[in-house]
Design goal:
The complex is a heterodimer. Chain A has one domain. Chain A is an all-alpha fold. Helices cover about 75% and strands about 0% of the residues of chain A. Chain A is globular, with a radius of gyration of 15 Å. Chain B is α+β, with helices and mostly antiparallel strands. Chain B has a domain of about 170 residues: Thrombin, subunit H, CATH 2.40.10.340. Helix content of chain B is about 35%, strand content about 30%. Chain B has four helices and 13 strands. In chain B, a hairpin with a 2-residue loop joins strand 4 and strand 5. Classes of the chains: A mainly alpha, B alpha+beta. At the A-B interface, helix 2 and helix 3 of A face helix 2 and helix 3 of B.
């Protein structure tokens, strides 16, 4: 599910409510296409929420204002940090998605396995996009 | 009130997020049949459990009445059914020994109940002590051995099936001129029985026929047990591990013969006297 890139690409300088609602409605749009109720919406809004919290904790707002930062990019921190950031947020999104999809306490480990494997896939596709578009 | 408003304003972002989550999870539950069933199962499990405990207690006190009613119903059904009259006369045929004395008498019986999927399988037949069935009599199927009678009621008997882990019989392999060892079942395949105690020096081959031994007191000699399926030699052991394909298909058992060995009581008394003598 590499569409999570969309949520990552939302500019940090936007209003956080706008980011949250945009992520939510993009998820809901996918749900309408997939006929899956609110699986994507729940996962996407969680992703957006966590992303905003993480961003505000990590990013130095003064530096952003001074240097005109718009995105969290590998330029700001090193690439390894950025990859870790991408992967864990992607994993969180997938984990929420598959937990709701399986909806069973007893399938904790299958859910973990499926979400790890598919988040690796999504992560690689996101990286591919970054390489094609050029890492800035 | 002011505090509440301040609280909401402070945590508005979190509250918006939680509202969105509640909405989307609600949508998941509403749209997806699987999640819906999971939610309703979890919530109703508690109430179902409570009501089950209640019915368990009340049912326990009704058990005696229920049993009586069931017995009456059973008797009525048995009296009314045609099965009851199927083998009402005691059919017997008799095998004579060389001197013309009756050695074995056979009694046909219908299989009422049987299992093949358990570790200890039993067969219930519709002949009992009223028809002359006694404990320890051998039971044969049309194509081979079937078991040994272990319990008798007036009209029914319980037969320890060959495919029971407690069954044992003495085999004989005429083609190898071998009369020793024992057959027993390891509980895995209901069509295969194990032959133990065959020495490595015996000339055994697959396909040889295994029959009951003439040393057996219960079984008549020469009743087919099965054919040797495969012969294995476990390391270090001086015996073969032999699988025998049963000639009786226990999954299709419908009628059996109960064998009455006329001289079994004499042999029993002799054995007992010998033991007492020691």
């Amino acid at each position: 599910m590499p569409y999570v890139l969309f949520v990552f690409l939302l500019p940090f300088t936007y209003n956080r409510y706008l980011i949250l609602l945009t992520a939510f409605f993009s998820g809901l749009f996918l749900d309408a296409l997939n006929n899956s109720g609110g699986l994507h919406a729940a996962a996407c809004s969680t992703l957006a929420f966590t992303r905003i919290i993480v961003d505000t904790k990590i990013l130095d707002t003064d530096a952003i204002q001074l240097q005109g930062f718009r995105y969290l990019t590998p330029v700001y921190k090193n690439f390894r940090f950025y990859a870790l950031y991408l992967f864990f947020l992607t994993f969180l999104h997938h984990w929420i998605y598959f937990t709701l999809d399986f909806s069973s306490i007893y399938s904790f480990f299958p859910v973990l396995l499926v979400s790890i494997v598919s988040s690796v896939g999504s992560f690689l596709l996101i990286l591919l996009y970054k390489i094609i578009a050029g890492i800035r | 009130m002011v505090f509440l408003i301040r609280f909401i304003r402070k945590n508005l972002f979190l509250i918006v997020y939680l509202l969105l989550m509640i909405f989307s999870t609600g949508q998941v539950v509403r749209f997806n049949i699987y999640q819906q069933s999971y939610y309703f199962n979890t919530s109703s499990a508690f109430f179902n459990g409570m009501s089950r405990i209640k019915t368990d207690i009340t049912d326990y006190f009704k058990l005696a009445d229920v049993n009586k009613a069931l017995l009456e119903e059973n008797n009525k059904l048995k009296e009314s059914s045609n099965e009851n009259r199927k083998f009402s006369d005691t059919q017997q045929f008799i095998a004579k020994d060389s001197s013309g004395n009756k050695k074995y008498s056979y009694l046909t019986a219908n299989v009422v109940q049987f299992t093949t999927h358990l570790q200890n399988n039993f067969i219930t037949i519709d002949k009992g002590s009223n028809q002359g069935v006694k404990k320890d009599m051998a039971v044969l199927s049309p194509s081979g051995i079937a078991g040994i009678v272990i319990d008798v009621s007036p009209d029914f008997s319980l037969v320890l099936s060959v495919i029971n882990s407690q069954f044992k019989a003495t085999p004989m392999i005429p083609a190898a001129n071998f009369r020793d060892g024992s057959v027993s079942w390891n509980g895995k395949d209901p069509t295969v029985i194990q032959l133990n105690g065959v020495s490595r020096f015996e000339k055994i081959a697959t396909g040889m026929e295994v029959v009951t031994s003439n040393y057996s007191v219960k079984f008549p000699s020469g009743v087919p047990i099965g054919k040797i399926l495969n012969v294995k030699q476990s390391g270090g052991s001086s015996f073969y591990d032999i699988d025998v394909k049963l000639s009786t298909d226990f999954r299709k058992l419908s009628h059996v013969y109960v064998v009455n060995y006329r001289h079994s009581s004499q042999i029993d008394t002799l054995n007992r006297r010998a033991k007492r003598g020691n």
